[in-house]
């Protein structure tokens, strides 16, 4: 599927690269602090890599794209920032999937799905990073040096021991502090910063919980690629989440009925 598609695109008449699309949501559809993410998600997307280093791609050729089934319509309000969804506040970590579910429910929301998250990240143009087709180390918080962790301390029974080790390792930044790390839907920090719990969409994953977006020390992370290795009770020093909510479509008032004009009988 990929080769015929890419060859057809390669030999087609050259076209100017499309301008970036900024999606403006209709008024009153999504609550404050969320962005409307609406479009079609394709389960399988293949691209042509142009820069390959140490087992990962850092640049893709714009316009060379094969989108393959399953196609899933998406229409959701997504938190602009990682939990607690406050610009300027650092995202919370060491969250289990089940804890994230409860926190979203406490504010009348739910966890986002894997497919919703990917569409929000790629935008209508299906770019591999929220900001384009080539990795930029300064765009998102994904290129910090990795700090070796102490597994025993992270899993210690004593809460204070876990917290001290977590904050020794923590390199998350305040939400919204990198303006370029925003998708065309206006959702921030989807790549890097903290890894995010999502509800699994792909049937082949073994758990109902999955992780998206990488974290502050995973420079090869982009909009695709799912960490499906951990069940709902897992927690770690770089794991957070964001919430979603189904849109409340604005109610259109019915047009007032036209007053009927009484019929008149012409005079004889």
UniProtKB/TrEMBL annotation:
Residues 258-268 have a biased composition (Polar residues). The keyword Cytoplasm does not apply. InterPro entries: CTDL_fold (IPR016187), Sulfatase_Mod_Factor_Kinase (IPR051043), SUMF_dom (IPR005532), SUMF_sf (IPR042095). Residues 1-19 form the signal peptide. Keywords: Signal. Gene3D superfamilies: paralog of FGE (formylglycine-generating enzyme). It comes from the Bacteria. Residues 86-244 form the Sulfatase-modifying factor enzyme-like domain. Residues 248-268 are annotated as: Disordered. This is SUMF1/EgtB/PvdO family nonheme iron enzyme. It comes from Polyangium mundeleinium. The lineage of its organism: Bacteria, Pseudomonadati, Myxococcota, Polyangia, Polyangiales.
């Amino acid at each position: 599927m990929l080769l015929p598609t890419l060859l057809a695109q390669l030999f087609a008449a050259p076209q100017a690269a499309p301008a970036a699309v900024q999606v403006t949501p209709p008024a009153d559809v999504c609550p404050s602090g969320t962005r409307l993410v609406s479009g079609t998600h394709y389960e399988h997307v293949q691209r042509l890599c142009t820069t390959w280093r140490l087992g990962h791609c850092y640049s893709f050729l714009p316009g060379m794209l094969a989108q393959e089934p399953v196609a899933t319509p998406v229409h959701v309000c997504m938190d602009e920032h990682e939990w607690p969804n406050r610009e300027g506040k650092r995202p919370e970590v060491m969250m289990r999937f089940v804890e994230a579910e409860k926190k979203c429910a406490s504010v009348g929301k739910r966890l986002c799905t894997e497919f919703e998250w990917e569409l929000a990240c790629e935008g209508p143009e299906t770019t591999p990073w929220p900001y384009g087709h080539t990795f930029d180390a300064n765009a998102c918080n994904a290129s910090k040096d990795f700090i070796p962790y102490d597994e025993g301390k992270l899993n210690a029974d004593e809460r204070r021991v876990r917290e001290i080790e977590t904050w020794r390792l923590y390199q998350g930044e305040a939400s919204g502090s990198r303006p370029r790390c925003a998708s065309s839907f206006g959702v921030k920090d989807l790549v890097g910063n903290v890894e995010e719990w999502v509800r699994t969409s792909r049937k082949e994953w073994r758990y109902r919980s999955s992780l998206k977006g990488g974290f502050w020390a995973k420079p090869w992370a982009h909009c695709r690629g799912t960490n499906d290795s951990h069940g709902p009770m897992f927690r770690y020093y770089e794991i957070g989440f964001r919430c979603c909510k189904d849109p409340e479509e604005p109610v259109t008032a019915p047009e007032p009925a036209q007053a009927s004009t009484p019929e008149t009988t012409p005079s004889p």
